[in-house]
Write a structure and sequence with these properties.
Pfam families: MASE1 (PF05231). Keywords: Cell membrane, Membrane, Transmembrane, Transmembrane helix. It is a single chain. The chain has 329 residues and is mainly α. It has 11 helices and 2 strands, in the order H-E-E-H-H-H-H-H-H-H-H-H-H. It has 2 domains: 172 residues, Arp2/3 complex 21 kDa subunit ARPC3, CATH 1.10.1760.20; 122 residues. A two-stranded antiparallel sheet has the order 1-2. The protein is globular, with a radius of gyration of 26 Å. The N terminus is likely disordered.
Length: 329
């Protein structure tokens, strides 16, 4: 009989420490990616999309509260990349940690499903996870900068709005994408692969042309986005919306295309409105279509089960013997 060699599992504290460092590293990388696409609005630096918030909410939804130390450490690393941390930096770290945690708690209380297969899931992610919870990070961050004297009070409103929208867009665009990738499975080869390839080509070719056009043609992105959401739901809508948002941000930073000749405030306002419209359209339309498809599948299954039950009853009834006795005549 062959000997069985036992493999000792790593101690739980070591696993938690490695997982914390992994989450912190991903948060820091996402933060550097977001900072690479900065805009200047009214003399202040803003980020139209802040990916770390979406990453943090997705980690909490998928793995639970043990991710909180990693989120806090990642936020601290991002702040340290600007220099030494002070009281305002500690407050920003606390706000950037508390906001995803509050988003996670509210989504759990609302019965949020990771599949985002219902309209109520999309609405909960937008209005609870993004718009409501991110008030904490934006309010705390801007408040700490004002108290420390690093932010003039006349810039308070615009910086808070940009901070809030950037954090919210991170949740709307990045969180669904990460949830989708976590449970992604390759579908069987079919004609939809050809349609998906055609959609990818259309998006990669037409979207940059639309963005860099000297005529404002941003509205032409929405038929493409609707096509992606209708045919592929989240798998098509969210990546398409994220690609359009990133492309629009790059064009806005270059002051080209639809953003040429605009002031800093006009550029930020148009970009935020465009990104927000993309995210809401992709997320909510995909959720509606998924819910309808699931309802149709449920009805079809119920019809099949009903037909099988009727066939079983008919088969049982045809074999029932007649009454005893012969002809009365």
């Amino acid at each position: 009989m062959a000997a069985v060699v036992g493999i000792r599992a790593w101690p739980r504290p070591v696993v938690l420490a490695c997982a914390t460092l992994l989450v912190a590293g991903c948060y820091y990388a996402a933060g550097r990616l977001g900072l690479s696409q900065q805009l200047i609005a009214d003399g202040s630096v803003v980020t139209p999309i802040w990916p770390p918030t979406g990453l943090a909410v997705a980690c909490l939804l998928l793995f639970g509260p043990w991710c909180v130390p990693g989120i806090a450490l990642g936020a601290l690393l991002v702040i340290l990349s600007f220099g030494t941390i002070g009281a305002e930096g500690a407050g920003i770290v606390a706000g950037n940690t508390a906001a995803p945690v509050c988003a996670w708690l509210m989504l759990r209380a609302a019965g949020f499903r990771l599949s985002l297969s219902r309209l109520r899931d999309g609405l909960a992610l937008v209005f609870l996870g993004a718009l409501t919870a991110m008030l904490i990070s934006s309010g705390t961050g801007v408040g700490m900068l004002v108290l420390s004297g690093e932010l003039p009070t006349d810039h308070l409103g615009i910086v808070w709005l940009a901070w809030w929208v950037g954090d919210a867009m991170g949740v709307v665009l990045v969180t669904p994408l990460l949830l989708l990738l976590y449970r992604a499975r390759l579908p069987p080869v079919s004609m939809r692969w050809a349609e998906a390839a055609g959609l990818t080509v259309v998006v990669c070719v037409l979207v940059p042309l639309i963005m860099y056009s000297s005529v404002s043609l941003l509205f032409l992105c929405f038929p493409i986005l609707i096509w992606a959401a209708l045919r592929f739901q989240l798998a098509g809508g969210i990546p398409c919306a994220l690609f359009m948002s990133v492309t629009a941000t790059v064009v806005a930073r270059q002051e080209a295309g639809s953003f040429d000749g605009l002031t800093d405030m006009e550029t930020m306002t148009r970009l935020h409105a465009f990104n927000g419209s993309l995210g809401l359209t992709a997320l909510l339309l995909s959720a509606v279509i998924s819910e309808q498809l699931n309802t149709r599948r449920s009805v079809e299954r119920a019809c099949v089960e009903l037909v099988e039950a009727l066939q079983h009853l008919n088969a049982g009834g045809s074999g029932t013997p007649g009454p005893p006795g012969g002809d009365a005549r």
